[in-house]
Amino acid sequence: MSVRVVNLEFAYPKFSLHVGGLTFEKSKVTAIVGPNGAGKTTFLKCVGAVLPIPKGSLFIEGRDLASLRSRERARLICYVPQEHDTTFNYTVSDFVLMGRAAFVSPFALPSREDTEAAAAALDFVGLAGYADRSISELSSGERRLVLIARALAQQSDILLMDEPTTFLDPKHEAEIFQLIRKLADERAKTILVTLHSLEMAVQHSDQMVFMKRGEVVAHGKSAEVFEDSLLERVYDMKMKIIEWEGRKIVLR
Amino acid sequence: MRLGRLRWIAAAPLALCVGALFSGQGRTIKDSLGRTVDIPQRVERILSLQPEITRILAALGVTDRLVGLDYFIGREDHLFKVLFPGGTGLPVVSRPDESVNKEFILRLNPDLIFASPTELQVPDSIQSSLGIPVAALASLGSFEGLLREIELVGALTGSTERAGELERYFRRRLESISETAAQSAATERPTAYLAFWSSLLRTPVSYEPIEAAGGRNVAGRLLPPHLGTIGTVITIEQIIKWDPDFILVQGSFLPGERRVTVEGVLGDKRLASLKAVKEKRIRYTLGFWYWWDPAGVLVETLYLAKLFHPERFTGFDLEREGNSIYEVFYRKQGIFTELMKALDFREWTDE
Amino acid sequence: MSGLTNSRSRGLAVFLLVLPLVLFLLSLSIGTYGIPPRGLLKTVLSVVSPASQPDVPAAYRDILLRIRLPRVLLAMAVGAALSVSGASLQALFKNPLVNEYILGISSGAAFGAALSLVFLGRAFPPQIAGFVFAVAAVGAVLLISGQAESHFITLLLTGIIVTAFFSALLSLVEFFASPYVLQALFFWLMGSLSLASWKDLYISLPLIAAGLFVLYLLRWRLNVLSMSEEEARSLGVNVRREKILVIGAATLITAAATAIVGIIGWLGFIVPHLVRMMFGADNRRVVPLSAALGASLMLVADDIIRGASAFEIPIGILTSLVGIPVFLILLKKTRKVWL
After folding, report:
1. Residues in contact with B331: Cβ distance below 8 Å, sequence separation at least 6, in sequence order
2. Model confidence, pTM
3. What residues pair up with A64 in beta bridges, in sequence order?
4. Span B76-93, mean pLDDT?
5. Type and span of the H or E element at C291
6. What 8-state DSSP symbol labels residue A61?
7. Is chain B in touch with chain C: ≥3 Cβ pairs within 8 A?
8. pLDDT per residue over C252-264, tens digit each?
9. Strand, coil or helix: C100
10. Cα torsion for C50, C51, C55, C57, to the nearest 10°?
């Protein structure tokens, strides 16, 4: 599913976002990077309609996102937050099952189809045996995987992930990226991720979008757009990109 | 009956002990809260925040010394306006929740304040901030207590003769009622349940008029007497279990304000099996009405005696007796008739 | 939730669901007017076929049908209502410290009842005004906290403020009340089932049943609504609409219960916790089991009151005395505060 951002505007009291002229294609992973306060999370939340957007800003396969009803929208696009705070100690399977909310009417219970979709999602992220554990027992890496599993259970073709790897150790980080790649390749999903790590971003994404102060500074294929002068412009400090064994490393 | 009389004396509250020390400077008393209060010899300006005491003052004939009244007597007591028409001109010093305006009291400059013993802080706080003696008194539902109160107030206001007169009259009439009514053995006394104004389930555990009238209060053994007068709440099954011969409903409030009514009790299907309901032996009685009215409680006892033992009171005109009792106390005629009209106690005057 | 195996917890769940029925039958035999078990049985039979039991005393029938039956039904209804309401609001507000009175229902109801007792006198039973103002308080909270994007913290804060406002109004009304009226008011405020009569039940039971039914249907949805607002929205839920639905149903049942029996605290807070401790946080279980446990606790508390003495002790006191030790015992056993 492709996402076309025509003219997205959102304003907080002291910050405003203006993004336009972007398209995200299926089977592609796009990394959204930029300094703190650039508006990456805000942008993601707007695309996911978690924040309210006016009509005419965003189109999914030609349909205006703002005019869709919640359930329809959820079946198309899913926003995965960075963290989930555990007020209530649900089991992993109950938690993932919540991803089926868009398919279950408010007054009904999930059907067998829903439970199976949830189980399959859990299996895809490699946590099949964790079904009866409680959320609070999981490590933060495992919890991220469960969040992704829930997003998978939702079966939306567009996934928006907010900093999925921040605070994770390298091993878990790698796992998550593998998963993201798998989702894009095997399930043809359109994936947007916000990342802090430039190196991870350039290594694992197909496209990159650079944001600064609420606006898009540059975007394009990761391999092409990633260069020193752009980094300096975006981050206001001198950086040097060096290549080593096919990988790009940023020196500051 | 001797046992009956002993019970009244035994039931007198620990509350009221009069230790009067006569000195040139006045006297010291102990009030119902156990506080020791020094009263000056001359008490010319009296503020009464206790309706029962106000009525006693009216009976003693010293209402000219009143400088102020409490909320109930001033605004809600339908009878007091008849007893003491001049009272409408007096300022009302307390509020419905029994709190007072201290500055107002200061301006009125009373020599003595009578308060109700419902809360310890109020008398203490008034006395300590204003320096005026406050005596918290109440009969607490006991005849002895009421009589001692009359004696004490009489002594404090220098109307001991009149107080003695009233006391003797009260005792005499009470004894004559009891002698006639209370002759029977315990098993012959009809049982009665008294319900408070606010709820059928609320009953004052100790209510002496019932015993004095030759009846038995079914709730009498629930709690020790000095706890029970404000009333305790019981289950409705308990009332059915007791199956009293009479059900009395406190009716001293105006008909429009009553929450429990005779009709209500008669119509309550849960009580249908009670003999009092089947035989329609449900009556209004005066009960507590911002404490007691000494004349009223005497008339009430008379009425109850006639109710419980009608065969011993034939040819007895309650209306005439009632008026005469009120006349002795308040030196006015026809008060009882007026009260019965206001409260719509037709059965009191028709029988 | 680790700790209870699946079959054990299923057995426990069945036990809890059956418990109210058992207690119901038991409760009918408890009361100040002792009716022996045979007498009770005969009375029940005489209701079904009067001809077969001619010698059943009228008192037995009156007590069973007019006093105990409505009271026991009311106890179950109120216990279930307050518990489910508490559970739903705890989920909705994502806060385990929430109870069913959080949106101002208790102080609104108290103010309404006081207003009615003091100024409207006998003409108006306090139940009606209590209900009206309970609903008004919640309405005020929803109105003040505003639009679709209001966060739950705002709702909570507004609830606290509205509660405080109605409490102040209550104090003002009490100021004008004579001690006699205050007596009636305080008894109501302490919470008592003694006022239960069929007339009250005809109105309140359907309301409670309706609200409970709605919340029962929403039980899985509550899981989703217990996520953060962002997550819930992302999961495809119309948060504003469903939030109002849950609050509406919870308010309806709490206001209906409170209007009749007064304020019975602690139940809506403790029962959902107990259930979560035993069965985990999934609301598909928490909702029905809270209803069952709440009904059972109320029955037990009321049985104690009716059976122990002739006095009509306010039940609010007892629900705390019964519920809190149970809560503490379970807390110790599971060793976690987490739900």
Report:
1. B61
2. 0.84
3. A59
4. 83
5. helix C283-308
6. T
7. yes
8. 999 999 888 888 8
9. coil
10. 20
To 5 degrees, how large is the angle CA B207–CA B211–CA B215? 115
Question: What is the band of C166 on the pLDDT scale with cuts at 50, 70, 90?
Answer: very high
ipTM: 0.89
User: Cα(C77)–Cα(C205) distance, rounded to whole angstroms?
Assistant: 7
Beta strand segments in chain B, E = 27-30, 36-39, 46-48, 66-68, 112-115, 134-136, 191-195, 202-203, 216-217, 232-233, 246-250, 282-285
Most confident of A226-240, B84-98, B244-258, C62-76: C62-76
Query: What b/e string do you get for A153-163 counting C-beta neighbours within 10 Å, with b at 16 or more?
Result: bbbbbbbbbbb
Chain A: nearest CA to C7, how far in angstroms?
14
Mean of pLDDT values over A159-177: 89
Residue in B72, B237, B278 to test binding to C, most C beta-carbons within 10 Å: B237
d(CA B137, CA B29) in angstroms, rounded, equals 11
* Helices marked H in C49-190: 58-61, 69-92, 105-115, 126-145, 152-175, 179-189
Compute the Cα dihedral for C149, C154, C159, C164 and give only its sign.
Answer: negative
Residue B229's pLDDT is 60
Q: What are the backbone angles phi and psi of residue B92, rounded to the nearest 5°?
A: -95, 125
Nearest CA in chain A to C220: A109
Specify the amino acid at residue B79.
Answer: L
* CB nearest to A73's CB, from C96, C231, C236: C236
Q: Which residues make Cβ contacts (< 8 Å) with residue B108, sequence separation at least 6?
A: B45, B47, B67, B68, B91, B93
Round to whole Å and give the CA distance between B286 and A249: 98
Please answer yes or no on whether C33 and B272 come within 8 Å at the CB atom.
no
pLDDT tier for residue B7 given thresholds of 50, 70 and 90: very low
Give the model's confidence band at C270: pLDDT under 50 very low, under 70 low, under 90 confident, else very high: confident
Which residues, at least 6 apart from C235, have a Cβ–Cβ distance to it below 8 Å?
A74, A78, A98, A99, A101, A102, A154, C224, C227
Q: Determine the distance in angstroms separating the CA of C32 from the nearest CA of chain B, rounded to an integer.
A: 5
Give the residue-averaged pLDDT of B308-317.
85
Which tokens hold the place of A64? 């205006």
d(Cα B271, Cα B196) in Å, to the nearest integer? 17
Check CB contact under 8 Å for A98 and C149.
no
Q: Which two tokens stand for residue C169?
A: 């109004």
- Across the interface, whether the CB atoms of B96 and C176 are under 8 A apart is answered yes
